[in-house]
Amino acid sequence: MKIAVSGKGGVGKTLVAGALAYFFAKKKFKTIAIDADPSPNLALTLGVPLEQVREIVPISENKPLIELKTGTKFSGVYQLSFTVDDVVRDFSVETPYGVNLIVMGTVKSMGSGCTCPANAVIRALLRHLIVERDEAVVVDMEAGIEHLGRGTAKHVDTMLVVADSVVKSLEIAKRIYELAEDAGIKQIFLVGNKIANEVEGDSIRKFAENNDMLLFHLIPFDEQVLRAETRGETPLRNEQSKAIRSIAELGKKLMQQ
Ligand SMILES: Nc1ncnc2c1ncn2[C@@H]1O[C@H](COP(=O)(O)OP(=O)(O)OP(=O)(O)O)[C@@H](O)[C@H]1O
Ligand SMILES: [Mg+2]
């Protein structure tokens, strides 16, 4: 399974990506989570302590790897395929609850350009990565629609488009949904998040219906998630959390696809 999680800023992409990766790891899937957001924070959600988060070397700073992808010297290398084991061994860091994490990285200083080479590496990784039945790759995308233009997640088999019930986030979700369809992604699912009541659920349902989007799952608003994050703790291990439990249900549904 190769799954990308996208949506407007702040809708809950990182929570969904992190909790899904955690769910698959608990199910004994060999799991890779890719933080493809140039403002990365998936590591914290996956339970990496803050001091260690700061030590993670992102792909954008892995010069040899970037050169492999972009330099003429080694062109062609990315025609080969990777196994999940290769990627885990060569590029990822371990996190406390069994998920292997890859961080794409960030723009280092003002005016230093874009994350294009690192994006290209992630795109190539996703393209050539062969994922077996008991393996899962979950990508936490950059907010908005820009990454679709770069085709970073073109080679996933499932795109989850997360939205809350605010019309602005649903409008962005619609745009992402359409672009993902144009890119030929096989399964595209709308996922509602932070649903606090029936009215919010209904408004997402109606929006999906009116715009030919497949509403796959609704995740409730959960105070406990917010509280954990306010303390700088991972919410993933909280078995009472309605949101985390709901994302596990989402994981089960994805396994049945
Ligand atoms: N179901 C939920 N219930 C309550 N709070 C939630 C829920 N989902 C996410 N949040 C909170 O909303 C905030 C944004 O979530 P998150 O960081 O996952 O969003 P994001 O889409 O990844 O944001 P960004 O675009 O900045 O990367 C966080 O404080 C998170 O704890
Ligand atoms: Mg995020």
Overview of this protein structure:
The protein is an alpha/beta fold and 257 residues long. It has a single domain, classed as P-loop containing nucleotide triphosphate hydrolases (Rossmann fold). Helices cover 42% and strands 19% of the residues. The protein is built from 11 helices and 10 strands. The chain has helices at residues 13-26, 42-45, 50-53, 63-70, 84-91, 116-128, 146-150, 167-182, 198-210, 223-230, 242-255; strands at 2-7, 30-35, 82-83, 93-94, 100-103, 129-130, 135-140, 158-163, 187-195, 215-220. An 8-stranded mixed sheet has the order 4-5-2-7-1-8-9-10, with helices on both faces. A two-stranded parallel ribbon has the order 3-6. Helix 1 (13-26) packs across helix 11 (242-255). The structure holds adenosine-5'-triphosphate and magnesium ion. Residues 13-14, 37, 41, 140 line the site of magnesium ion. The site of magnesium ion (MG) has 5 residues, from helix 1.
Q: What structural category characterises the helix and strand content?
A: alpha/beta
Give the helix level as a range of percent.
40-55%
Written as H for each helix and E for each strand, in order along the chain, the element string is EHEHHHEHEEHEEHEHEHEHH
Nearest-angstrom radius of gyration?
17 Å
Total count of domains: 1
Note the overall shape.
Answer: globular
Number of helices: 11
Number of strands: 10
Uncertain stretches: 71-77
Taking the sheet with the most strands, its summary is:
8 strands, mixed
Strand order of the largest sheet: 4-5-2-7-1-8-9-10
